[in-house]
Design brief:
Helix content: 55-70%
Radius of gyration: 24 Å
Distance between the termini: 46 Å
Number of helices: 19
Length: 598
Amino acid sequence: MPIPFTPPLADIRFVLTRLVGLEQLAALPSYEAVSADVIEAVLGEAAKIAGEVFAPLNDVGDKRGARFENGSVTMPPGYREAYKAFVDGGWNGLPVASDLGGQGLPWSIAMPVQEMLQAANLSLALCTLLNQGAIEAVEAHGDTALKTKFLPKLVSGAWTGTMNLTEPQAGSDVGAVRCKAVRDGECYRITGQKIFISYGDHDLTENILHLVLARLPDAPEGTRGLSLFLVPKILVKDDGNLGAANDVRVVSIEHKLGQHASPTCVMAFGDKGGAVGYLVGAPHGGMAAMFTMMNNARIGVGLQGLALMERAYQQARDYAKTRVQSRDIRKPKDAPVTIIHHPDVRRMLLWMKAHIEAARALAYAAALAIDISKLARDEKQKQAAHARVDLLTPVVKAWLTDLSNEVTSMAVQVFGGMGYIEETGAAQHMRDARVLAIYEGTNGIQANDLVFRKLARDGGTAFMDLLDEMESLLPELAKHPGDDCTAMHKHLKNALENLRASGGWMAKKAKEDASVAAASAAPFLRLMGNAVGGYYLAKSAVLAQEDLTSRAGDADFLAGKIMTARFYAEHVLPQCNALAVTVVEGAKVSLTMLEETF
């Protein structure tokens, strides 16, 4: 029986209109017409396709999975129709400029839409995330001929896109790629094998555009020698019609722990002399072009983590409200009660809820920074927003996906023994979440990226600007009466002090001793995620208190925002102190322990 999903529109609406700030969106060129009514209409329709079209297929997709037969992949029943509904509704081009055939709406709206779709059916919605990244890469780096030939069908969703980096010997070390490209007139011939290619083949669309990293004959070693090529599954004639099959073959699909309906393919290029490919960007400029797609995907994967947290929390919460087990510890003589009355179950649910709301606020703040970085009139504002996106990207990817593993596991714990039984659906989310911390750059790589590139690249300016913004909330918190804001002020102040001190230490160590910085990078990223999440929840609490005072909005919802923020302040922010100790003192044993003693 399909498990229902209700998109969390109340919190999405609050974060977009109150926390992120609708006025900042409306101030950007091309977004002047983005109003609360527009947001409401888009989110309402997205909630319908997520809840009514994508979600009912999640269970059948998990149980049946994608099938590899006779050299091609067949998707589970209903998936083609669901994808067609997505395309027919214009959702694929939501954040794409209107002159490219898209809807021209902000990423600040596209990301909440993606959250709902990913929560409804992550295996199916992953295809739509890949499309967004492919569109950005081709639009940013393709020449006019390439864009004219391929971009319209990619934007509409009539064709889908993939990302082909990994090879058997080249996982995290992308510079070890051996796939070859040789010039052949106006195109190139691509030969080689790629593995772990999400949606490398499927029957949702008639064509698939593979973005493939390969080496030209004169390419230098390492990442500096990589070029990016667009390799269609079916060749496209000059008039736009499909021609013959390209020299591209699906070797097999992987049998995985989770995401069973998302085909993860082994791809062979050039078995019969070379697959036709078209250069995207400059020769040997493949990594710059691919990073356009990868950065988009990294935030998208973080969003997947948020989505699975929400889906798992909803099921755990609803189960806790109906499962009768044992008596209330405060009323031992009364009849047994539903488990939501038990203190530890309440703690688990609040832990989940608090992290979800913190994660959502961070992801949507990153989306607003993307919009500002693309369209702000002031060049300094645009550059600052771009730096903010760069700084937050590894945190969004790693912190949200680490949390997703923890939250989905905790949801199983709320279910108890029934969570370990597949029929309840609780275990699927934990299985689906596990890979999120691995693909699109492992979370260890994200931590190194944060420390060695994003923290130190501009002398720490972007990091310090974010810290200054967060610290500016402290006087506002201090002005609000009551225990809630007092507790938030105390713990947020301590967390930010720890983050500032740890950030300075990490920036120094990154220059002095890279191995020490690398050993401390993951706990530093966790510290930063915890602190930034606490800032956004505390800011949400201030806004919720203002709305309660002015009687604007649902009183129960607003009271819940305040209490959730206080719970986070008291249960999560104190961990920043311990993490700061680990950052500064925890590297030595990791680096000096003998291999034989492991």
